[in-house]
């Protein structure tokens, strides 16, 4: 009875301290107050190919090309395969006995007098041949091998989630860059119209100066406005070229091949009719970065188990079967066979505190992984909350910009009608047109922001990768 109690105490001590998963914040809502974005569809999952919600065949094709040709994904996929092979190798090395075959031949010459005899029962020198098969297996009494495999499996899971996160980021970058390109093209077109208007206004003011109805200050002011409008164009064109370079790079092309890419315009993109919004309780299972942090946490916990098991004995069983023969003998003949059976037990006694320190380090690493997991979860919820508030603001801003553009258009139409009747000057008409173009430019930027923030919400919710994995 006493021996049994000691054995139970000994085995229970191997488990070390109980390692509890950190408490994860449980939220019923993403934001303190409800979001008024009219397109939200609460409880609905994001589709795996979420970028199709913009209903652009060119965008869909470009995202697919990026997913197939990206070196970033190729690197992440190779790291996943490496971790899988490391796991397979360790499984084979720990779960099954090791069997090795050995064949040797040696030439031996011994001086009988060195052994204190005049002669040996056999003639020297002679040849000695040995053929053997050795089997060894280390029993996993305290779970070191099992926990090591768990750590390696968690490493595989981590690399898998890293691959999914890279796919999500790549698709999001392509979509965002395409939206940015469409917005820049619209801004460039509007800016060119504004430059033409300023040029016409300048010509009018210069004519008015010649007849004495406008001052030199009026001309200088108009030239300044024209120069400022023209100064906007090179920067917009530079940004457009850089976005095109980025799209080429994301799809595995050199920047010089950007001319082969489709051109995107806001009129060809459609705002998603609805925005799937999964429930907050599922967010931690949806975002690949959170799942990756969870895998690292489990890996750290398994390594604590390995460090704990290393404090206790290791029992290894060995068996060797073979045949031994000298010169002229037959390795397979009678009387040449032999076998050896053995067992070894290794118990660490004094390592200068090394093993205990390694276990304490493993526990500290586990606590660090737990804190990192909490941090990633909190950041994930913040990403969703920020995206929702951005969409809410975009909706209001777009409505205001749209109303301003409508008012500017109505004002321009009134001025145009009065100009035809001779009630106002052409300068007044061009000024009304300039205001309309400025309002249209601001509406374009607001519309592009709403497109981009819709894509940001899909990314913040995890991108729907789990649905593709279930197929």
Explain what you see.
This protein has 471 residues and is of the alpha+beta class. It has one domain (38-108, 121-470): Outer membrane efflux proteins (OEP), CATH 1.20.1600.10. The protein is built from 10 helices and 6 strands. The chain has helices spanning 2-14, 57-69, 71-95, 144-210, 216-250, 283-286, 288-309, 354-420, 426-460, 465-470; strands at 40-42, 98-108, 126-139, 275-277, 314-326, 337-346. A 4-stranded antiparallel sheet has the order 2-3-5-6, with no helix packed on it. The protein has a two-stranded parallel sheet with strand order 1-4. α4 packs antiparallel against α5 and α8 (354-420) runs antiparallel to α9 (426-460). It is elongated, with a radius of gyration of 38 Å. Mean pLDDT is 87; it is low at 1-19.
At the third CATH level, what is the topology name? Outer membrane efflux proteins (OEP)
Count of distinct structural domains: 1
| Annotation, overall tally of beta strands | 6
- Major sheet: size, sense and barrel closure? 4 strands, antiparallel
Give the proportion of residues in helices: 55-70%
Q: Rg to the nearest angstrom?
A: 38 Å
First CA to last CA: what distance? 56 Å
Strand order of the largest sheet: 2-3-5-6
Q: Describe the oligomeric state of these chains in a short phrase.
A: single chain
Q: What's the shape?
A: elongated
Structural class: alpha+beta
Q: What share of residues are in beta strands?
A: 5-15%
The appropriate CATH architecture is Up-down Bundle
Poorly predicted parts: 1-19
Summed up, the helix count is 10
């Amino acid at each position: 009875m006493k021996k049994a109690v000691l054995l139970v105490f000994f085995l229970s001590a191997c488990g070390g301290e109980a390692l509890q998963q950190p408490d994860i914040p449980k939220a019923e809502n993403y934001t303190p107050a409800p979001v008024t974005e009219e397109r939200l569809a609460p409880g609905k999952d994001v589709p795996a190919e979420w970028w199709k919600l913009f209903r652009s065949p060119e965008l869909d094709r470009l995202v697919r090309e990026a997913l197939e040709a990206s070196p970033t994904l190729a690197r992440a996929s190779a790291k996943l395969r490496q971790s899988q092979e490391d796991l397979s190798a360790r499984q084979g090395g720990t779960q099954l006995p090791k069997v090795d075959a050995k064949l040797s031949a040696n030439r031996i010459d011994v001086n009988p007098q060195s052994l204190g005899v005049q002669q040996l029962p056999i003639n020297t020198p002679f040849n000695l041949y040995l053929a053997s098969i050795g089997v060894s297996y280390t029993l996993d009494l305290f779970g070191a091998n099992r926990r090591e495999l768990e750590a390696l499996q968690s490493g595989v899971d981590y690399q898998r989630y890293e691959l999914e996160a890279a796919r999500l980021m790549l698709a999001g970058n392509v979509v965002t860059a395409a939206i940015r390109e469409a917005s820049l093209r619209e801004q460039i077109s509007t800016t060119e119209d504004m430059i033409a208007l300023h040029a016409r206004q300048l010509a009018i003011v210069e004519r008015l100066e010649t007849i004495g109805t406008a001052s030199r200050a009026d001309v200088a002011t108009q030239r300044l406005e024209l120069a400022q409008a023209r100064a906007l164009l090179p920067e917009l064109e530079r940004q457009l070229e850089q976005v095109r370079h980025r799209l080429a790079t994301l799809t595995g092309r050199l920047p010089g091949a950007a001319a082969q890419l489709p051109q995107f315009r806001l009129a060809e993109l459609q705002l998603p009719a609805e925005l799937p919004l999964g429930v907050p309780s599922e967010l931690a299972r949806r975002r690949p970065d959170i799942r990756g942090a969870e895998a690292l946490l489990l890996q750290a916990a398994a390594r604590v188990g390995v460090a704990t098991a290393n404090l206790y004995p290791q029992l290894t069983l060995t068996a060797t079967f073979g045949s031994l023969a000298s010169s002229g003998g037959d390795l397979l003949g009678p009387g040449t066979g032999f076998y050896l059976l053995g067992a070894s037990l290794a118990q660490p006694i004094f390592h200068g505190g090394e093993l205990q320190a390694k276990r304490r380090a493993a526990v500290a690493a586990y606590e660090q992984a737990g804190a990192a997991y909490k941090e990633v979860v909190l950041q994930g919820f913040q990403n969703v909350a920020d995206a929702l508030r951005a969409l809410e603001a975009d909706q209001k801003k777009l409505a205001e910009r749209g109303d301003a553009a409508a008012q500017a258009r109505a004002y321009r139409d009134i001025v145009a009608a009065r100009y035809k009747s001779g009630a106002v000057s052409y300068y007044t008409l061009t000024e009304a047109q300039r205001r309309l173009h400025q309002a249209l430019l601001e509406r374009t930027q607001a519309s592009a922001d709403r497109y981009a923030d819709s894509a940001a919400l899909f990314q913040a919710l995890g991108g729907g990768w789990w649905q593709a994995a279930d197929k």
